[in-house]
Amino acid sequence: MKIIKSINEMQRTAFEVREKNERIGFVATMGALHKGHLSLVDIVKKGADVIIISIFVNPKQFGTSEVSPQEDYERYPRDVEQDIKILEDKKVDIVFIPDTYEMYPEGHLSYVNVQELGEVLCGKSRPGHFKGVCTVLVKLFNIVKPDITIFGEKDMQQAIIVKKMVEDLNFDIEVITGPTIRENDGLAISSRNIYLSAQQRKDVPILYKSLVIAKEMIEKGERDSTVVIEKIRSLIEKKDAKIDYIDIVDKKDLTPAKSIKGDVLIALAVYFGSTRLIDNIVIGVNP
Ligand code: AMP
């Protein structure tokens, strides 16, 4: 496995791969790799000859707001040596690990923003987050030159925004998604789960449990979003948790779905102590 730290070398290498008519499959990560990340590697492998993973904790997507004090950049888990071992075992071809200065040298002024879609759900409580995500992804796309890239449905809003950005800005890249990988009790695997105390770890499966209950309510005929949201809220409030948001939106454009029809996304973000966890479920309702 090749480890590349410089943008120039990564661009040159990607160019050489494409010259050989080999397809590049790309997974962007912030490291602290787990089964969720590796599932994306498995999926993207099917559509590519050369697999490139980036590990970069992107400072531009971390809020400094008081709403999310623990979202801070310094505190994000990092274990590059372990990540490299995992990716070697996984037979990944190239890992791109630039440092912050390489990605954002002094004087960086350019940003990419997907309006509206980036301002709801997580974008509301983390202003600027998706602008940071889109900016780093555009840079990574220009550096890694992928033919195909994959995003996890655990971050469904992010996946939807990236697809829109790629379409709007005419990137010649296929964007696919992979399902959320969960622990046996339903908890969506996340690098942030290590922050949870033993009690919180016992409580957090309520997130997915409440989404599944919501899905069942809808399948049984409930169409009023307010009723469904209140049910989820009441289940989560039984735990020592602080709800950031619970929303039901149209999956296409993330606008509020007052009554449930078509493909809807139920998304939530909840604090357990200072750890903010997100989860979501998609439900298709035939009119
Ligand atoms: P991150 O390192 O958190 O930026 O995540 C990198 C990619 O992995 C993103 O596309 C995430 O949506 C995806 N991802 C993170 N956790 C999971 C999971 N539990 N299941 C599937 N994909 C995931």
Could you characterize the architecture of this molecule?
This protein has 287 residues and is of the alpha/beta class. The protein has 2 domains: 2-178, Rossmann fold, CATH 3.40.50; 191-279, Pantoate-beta-alanine ligase, C-terminal domain (Pantoate--beta-alanine Ligase, Chain: A,domain 2, 2-Layer Sandwich). It has 10 helices and 9 strands. The protein has helices at 7-19, 35-45, 80-89, 100-103, 122-125, 129-144, 156-168, 198-203, 206-219, 225-236; strands at 2-4, 24-29, 50-55, 94-96, 148-152, 174-178, 242-250, 262-272, 275-285. The strands form 2 sheets. Strands 1-4-3-2-5-6 form a 6-stranded parallel β-sheet, with helices on both faces. It has a 3-stranded antiparallel β-sheet with strand order 7-8-9, with helices on one face. Helix 6 (129-144) packs across helix 7. The longest helix is centred in the middle third of the chain and has 16 residues, at 129-144. The model has no long low-confidence stretch (mean pLDDT 96). Bound molecules: adenosine monophosphate. The site of adenosine monophosphate (AMP) has 17 residues, from helix 2 and strand 5.
Question: In the CATH hierarchy, what is the superfamily of the largest domain?
Answer: HUPs
Shape: globular
Q: Helix coverage percent of residues?
A: 25-40%
Heteromolecules bound: adenosine monophosphate
| CATH architecture term of the largest domain | 3-Layer(aba) Sandwich
SSE string, helices as H and strands as E: EHEHEHEHHHEHEHHHEEE
Tell me the strand order in the biggest sheet.
Answer: 1-4-3-2-5-6
**Largest β-sheet summary:** 6 strands, parallel
In terms of per-residue confidence, which ranges show pLDDT below 50 for 5 or more consecutive residues?
none
Radius of gyration: 19 Å
CATH domain class name of the largest domain: Alpha Beta
Find the structural class using helix and strand composition: alpha/beta
Distance between the termini: 50 Å
